[in-house]
């Protein structure tokens, strides 16, 4: 079971990993409340997902990358491990914020922002909801003993559609699926990551929110 990144090509998924489409439900303004699974794709044990944004058969690759997609240099495991992370202390939870991983999902803006909620009494469940709905894993919460608190995800992949703002989002990889970026070189396994599928991220293979500025739509 893994995702292998093909140079100038697609994501090759192996190991019969389930594939879904998820949309978000609106909370207020452009801020979402939760993710909702709306479709399960029929897949084989191995399949290829588009990461250039050019396929006419999204989310699957149709070979369009061969004409127009030239990949930037992928970040390495060391690059990922060294991304700037800021720790915030709260009443019940502490928060690790790895801002470069932001995929512009906007759950963190709820009720004045998760950073303010950390120091308000009775907000523990909202803080958990916000952190767990952050698909990229930018926001990770810890208890006061330093134990990481994470949703219990099974290995699966979701194609995200940001219906609140009418745009298409990244690929959400859940449950610790290994990601191979060079031959036999893997990123640190994480419970939540988002992979670019518009082809425009400056942080490839990870999403950096550029799909919002580019108004990317999966059409």
Short description:
The protein has helices at residues 65-68, 77-81, 114-117, 124-133, 210-213; strands spanning 2-5, 11-14, 19-28, 31-40, 47-49, 86-89, 94-97, 139-142, 148-149, 156-162, 167-174, 179-182, 185-186, 192-195. With 219 residues, it is mainly β. The protein has one domain (2-213).
Q: What do you see in this structure?
A:
This protein has 219 residues and is mainly beta. It contains five helices and 14 strands. It has one domain (2-213). Strands 5-2-1-12-13 form a five-stranded mixed beta sheet, with no helix packed on it. The protein has a five-stranded mixed beta sheet with strand order 4-3-10-11-14, covered by helices on one side. The longest helix is centred in the middle third of the chain and has 10 residues, at 124-133. It is globular. The model has no long low-confidence stretch (mean pLDDT 96).
Counting structural domains, the number is 1
Strands in their spatial order, largest beta sheet: 5-2-1-12-13
Integer-rounded radius of gyration: 17 Å
In round numbers, the mean pLDDT is 96
Strand content of the residues, in percent?
A: 25-35%
Helix-strand string: EEEEEHHEEHHEEEEEEEH
Q: What is the terminal-to-terminal distance?
A: 29 Å
**Low-confidence parts:** none
Structural class: mainly beta
Continuous helix count: 5
Q: Which shape, going by the Cα principal axes?
A: globular
- Number of distinct beta strands: 14
**What does the main sheet amount to?**
5 strands, mixed
Percent helix, as a range, is 10-25%
